[in-house]
Each structure stands twice: as structure tokens, then as C-alpha cells.
Design brief:
It is a single chain. The chain starts with a strand and ends with a helix. It is of the alpha/beta class and about 475 residues long. It has helices spanning about 10-15, 20-25, 35-45, 60-75, 90-95, 100-110, 125, 130-140, 160-175, 205-215, 230-235, 245-260, 275-290, 290-315, 330-345, 355-360, 365-370, 390-395, 455-470, 480-485; strands at about 5-10, 50-55, 115-120, 145-150, 185-190, 220-225, 240-245, 320-325, 350, 375-380, 405-410, 415-420, 420-430, 435. The chain has 3 domains: about 35-155, Rossmann fold (3-Layer(aba) Sandwich); about 185-290, 3-Layer(aba) Sandwich (Rossmann fold); about 305-485, Rossmann fold (3-Layer(aba) Sandwich). The protein is built from 20 helices and 14 strands. The model has no long low-confidence stretch (mean pLDDT about 90). The longest helix is centred in the middle third of the chain and has 26 residues, at about 290-315. The strands form 4 sheets. The chain has a 6-stranded mixed β-sheet, sandwiched between helices. The protein has a 3-stranded parallel β-sheet with strand order 2-3-4, sandwiched between helices. It is about 45% helix and about 15% strand. Strand 5, helix 10 (about 205-215) and strand 6 (about 220-225) form a beta-alpha-beta unit.
Length: about 475
Amino acid sequence: MAEIELKRLSEVYFITPDPKSEEREKMFPGYYSHWCPAKISHYHLGLRDCVVLIHGPQGCSGNYRQFLCTYVSQYHGAPFVYTPTTDMRARDTILGAEEKLREAILQVDKIYKPRVIFILITCCAAVTKEPVKDVAEDMEPQLGAERILVCEAPGFIHYAAGLINMYISRTLAELFEPPQRKIPNSVNILGITKEIHHQGKFPDDSNELERLLNKVGITVNSVLVQGATVDDFKRAPEAEFNTIVCPQWGYPQATEMLDRWEIPHGKGFNPLGVSAISHWLREVGEHFGIEEKVEGLIAEEYEQIKDIWEEAKKAVSGKIALIDGADPMSSAGRTIAWARLCADLGMRPIIYNVPPIEIKGKVHHAMFALEYGFDPEVVWSTYAFHRRFTGWKVMKELDLKPEDIGVYMGDVFPRATVDRDDWNKPYFDPSNVPRVISATHINKNRNSPGRRAGFTGAARFARDILNANRMAERNTKPTLYGRLGGI
């Protein structure tokens, strides 16, 4: 029997236990998310006019700085971020560090003068059961900062990345304020990460989506969460409608605004590909009663990319799309969106290197996809201790040949190798298996968004597919990565 087997997303989702349950440990012993919850929290709470205070040891600060340098800054640059800590030591982990916390809050307020201070509770602070929220409530009136908000991020309560993502999103939702007015024909774009909404040299997803919305008379009020300001959050409830890009980040905030102020929201997510962006736009059109305008826009935009899109579809229709969950092995949302994009071109997507716990943790991605009618195949495995499969391993287990592959989509670390007995013969390499890098932060392009959202993104993906397949036709002279991988 093969070491791996294929199941549908729906089956994986429903047979996988709740990540918080004891059943999780029985089915997937020893599994924890690749990313430190405190590290992920710090990254996404880092609004432009706020400071995150780490209630924990210096090591937590170093962990975050390392993440910023190796996974983020080297690809698209990032400004210097402050990482103050309460510098908890062994004694503090046993006896508590409330006085250190109070002093650190005062110093952060005095030195950095932030509008909001986020207190990040790490593992060390969590085990002492420190009254952090009581301290924050007590000290807030003494500060120049408008708010102190607390985020609990110990690893032992966030077993999957999706759990901490939802918690961070709800923490940020505390910045919402009751709307003083309603802005006609306006929307928020929720669930934007790894980009800042501004007009720069390299367009992002939100730029492409705003361009399309503006063409049918809809304005964008706030773009959340990454790179937003406190004011972006405060005014978000003034919009008439919420659109969602990443549901794991956007859906908790959309439901918060729905529950508190009856602001409706869509369910279209990660609008990658012609079908997905059309569905996303139609949700907006239906809410505002401008269906005819939206259909005209869809027809106009598709006409501009039709030739390249149909050429790519002809080249890969019926082939396999291998969708790699990438280095963190927690990118369930990204892989589901990429898989749907590949299916839009007529390919049969197979997702792997995404453990079932991460799929269950990214509940909104899975459920939105299934509601949409998309139920891709997923490689089922225990993935113990982050044991990743290589693309050639999956191909071998599923009895696939290089010519069966329409595209392999992987992350920042290339997976390539040659025949160990013949360095001129590719084994799993761009010269015989077409591949496209999926990581957002190394996909900056002057002509299309990094995640390839919308119609311009779909056209770029079609070009990527054609280029990758042309390169793979040579079937000789492997890349340098492939030769090194064969050593």
C-alpha cells in the first residue's frame, strides 16, 4: 500500500478532529503548527501607529526578528519594528512579573508614543496566569496611548495556525467603533495580509480589486488587516458592505460588524482566476443592485485576457496541478485558492504538505470552498513532526510521470533534483516538471498583483503556466538547484 493516499477536502475536513480536542492528539500525536503563535501575532498586530509589547523573555523578541529577516524582509523589505519585552527570567516564570509589565507599559508609552499598545502574552507569561487584562484596564487611563489591547499567544493553546489567525483577527476587531455615518456605495476589503494598501511600483491584490470596484462606481473604505492604521479600523463600520479575500483573517471581522451593526458581507474568497473574481464581483453587484454593470465589467475584463487565458487552458487542461503546502505547512488557504485557480484552467489539482490539522484549523477556507462547490483532492498523511513530502515523492506514490504535470506550485525553497547517476538528466526539476513559485512575497511584478488576484492576475498566471511548460519541454540540462539537489 502506498505511504500516502488521496482524499477529498470534504472528507479530510470532516474526519479530522477539532484542533483543541484530545482526539487531535490521538490521531496526530505531537503535532504543532510550524509557526510560533507569538511570532505570527506580532507580525499581524504591527499596525503602523502601534507598538507590540512582548510579555515574555528576550528569546521571543529574537524569534520574531529572525522571522522578519529570513521570511519577510529579504523578499520585499520591511521597516524597522520595535520589539520591546518585559524580559521575563526564570524567577518571573515561576513567581510572575506584574511589576515588570507595569513598568514596561509606562516606558513603551513614554518612548514610542503609540496610539495603541498590544500586549502579547507568550508561553512564559501564560503559565503564571498573570492578570494581564486587569493590568491593562487599570493602566489605560494613565497613558497617552488611546488603548491597550491584549493578545494571548502561547503555543500550547494554538495547535494550528488558523486558530491564532482567528484570535488575532478578533483582537484587532476591538478597534472598531460605532459608525457615525454610512458612506454610500462603499465596501471594505477584509483579509489582506503580506501587503500594504498603497499605490507603489508593484501592485498588490487590493490595488487590483479596488481598480475593478471603482469601474462600477464602488469605493473602498478600509483595507484590513496588514499595514492598516488605527483609523482604518475605526472607520471600517462606515462601509455598506464587506468583501472578503482571506476568510481566516476577514470572516471574524466581517461577522463582528454583521452582529454589531448589521453590515452584510460576501463569501467569495481569494479571487484568483476568472471564475473566482467573477463570483467575487457578482456578490458586490447583487448587494448594490448593479448586476448589469458588473456583468459588463466581467465581459470587458475577460475580453482583454481571453487569448492568453484560453491558450494556457489548452496547454494544461486535463493535466495534474501539484500544489505544495510550502515551508510552513500551514498554508491551507493559499493552497486551496491556488488549486481552484488551476482547476479554472482545466487541471486536476492535488494538494499536499498541508496536514489535516491545518485544514481543520483554517475552517473558513475549507467551508467556503465547499460551499462554493470546490472539493479538491488532498494527500492524506499524519505528517509527523513536519515531515514534508517532495514533489517527486508524491509523483512516485501516485504513479505520475513528468508529462502528466501541468504545474508544480511551491514556496520559497526550491525543490529540485537530478538523476543521481546522470547529472545531465533531470529527475524533478524546472527543466522537466513545469513549476510556478506561489509565495506572495517573492512575486512582485510591475504589471500584476503578487497573489495574481483579479483579471490582470489571471492573465499573469496564464503566462507563468505557458512559460513554465515551455521550459519543461527541454527535458535536459537541469538547473543549478537540480544539480545541487542530486549531490
